[in-house]
UniProtKB/TrEMBL annotation:
It holds the Pfam family ABC_tran. It comes from the Bacteria. PROSITE patterns: ABC_TRANSPORTER_2. InterPro entries: AAA+_ATPase, ABC_transporter-like_ATP-bd, ABC_Transporter_VariousFunc, P-loop_NTPase. GO terms for molecular function: ATP binding. PANTHER family: ABC TRANSPORTER ATP-BINDING PROTEIN ALBC-RELATED. This is ABC transporter ATP-binding protein. Residues 5-225 form the ABC transporter domain. Keywords: ATP-binding, Nucleotide-binding, Transport.
Length: 285
């Protein structure tokens, strides 16, 4: 599709004779997919994400495609002359929302991340965690087609991290591409459609899985029955595992943070799937 973002032979260095931070990068985050980027500190991960967000321009190669893009930086400029609600409302208007729609979306995301009580607090007076919640909210309020997250979970409390996990699942289920970097190898473990490593100025796709990490948070087992054929592709992306236990009956294991999105996908499919049971993994129904 013309709007999909592609990096083609991209390189980046700072200064005419500066060392290459990245070289010969090819990357295409497809709609509806989750892409993880890993690698040691200082290898160019943040530079790569800024190129994806079109906040930086390549020294060589080209970036094509113009999806509606949102970006959460590693360091968010918190000392801004706005309240949280006014800042988000302003950004919503920049994204093309009416003022009423922008204010409604701003309040919705502040509430979802547990900071609605600070809607009228000046940004400069928010805690680090409060500022990070605003940073995440500003990226989500306009329903981006490409969501770029650079250590976006850092500074968030446990509930807000789970809410961001849920929001990522919602965006991919809605057809958005999500690219993220996070220092915790357990973050969204096993859910990425593609994983890359940055090192020595190059981007390499990881072909062999890393050793399994303990999943973040509890999981649920969901049993469903539906029409003949495979489960919806969106449901398979959200589930950590899926197996057919009988003709038309499937058992899925899903992180709790993704469960409501999974159920919505199944129940709104045409024709809908029937949910037979939902239980803690290994627990009673």
């Amino acid at each position: 599709m013309p709007g999909e973002l592609r990096l083609e032979g991209v390189g980046r260095r700072y200064g005419v004779r500066g060392p290459w931070v990245l070289r010969d990068v090819h990357l295409h985050p497809a709609p509806g997919t989750l892409t993880r980027v890993g690698g040691p500190n200082g290898t160019g991960k943040s530079t790569l994400l800024r190129l994806l967000a079109r906040l930086d321009a390549p020294t060589e190669g080209r970036v094509t495609g113009t999806p509606r893009t949102a970006y959460v930086p590693e360091r968010f400029p918190a000392a801004l002359p706005f309240t949280a609600l006014r800042y988000l409302t302003h950004l919503g208007a920049v994204h093309g929302l009416s003022r009423t729609a922008a204010e409604r979306a701003a309040g919705y995301w502040l509430d979802r991340f547990g900071t609605g009580g600070h809607a009228h607090t000046p940004m400069s007076r928010l805690s680090k965690g409060g500022s990070q919640k605003v940073a995440v909210a500003q990226a989500l309020l306009a329903e981006p087609e490409l969501l770029v997250l650079d250590e976006a979970w850092t500074g968030l409390d446990t509930d807000a991290r789970a809410e961001l996990d849920r929001a990522v699942a919602e965006r991919t289920a809605a057809g958005s591409a999500v690219v993220f970097v996070d220092h915790d190898p357990r973050r969204l473990a096993g859910l990425a459609d593609a994983e890359y490593t940055v090192g020595d100025g190059t981007l390499r796709r990881r072909t062999a899985p890393e050793p399994a990490a303990a999943p973040v948070g509890p999981h649920l087992t969901v049993e469903v029955r539906g029409p003949a054929g495979e489960l919806p592709a969106q449901a398979l992306r959200l589930a950590a595992s899926a197996e057919e236990t009988a003709d038309g009956t499937h058992r899925l294991t899903v992180p709790v943070s993704h469960s409501d999105v999974l159920l919505r996908v199944l129940l709104t499919a045409r024709p809908p799937w029937h949910v037979l049971s939902v239980s803690p993994r290994g627990g009673a129904r």
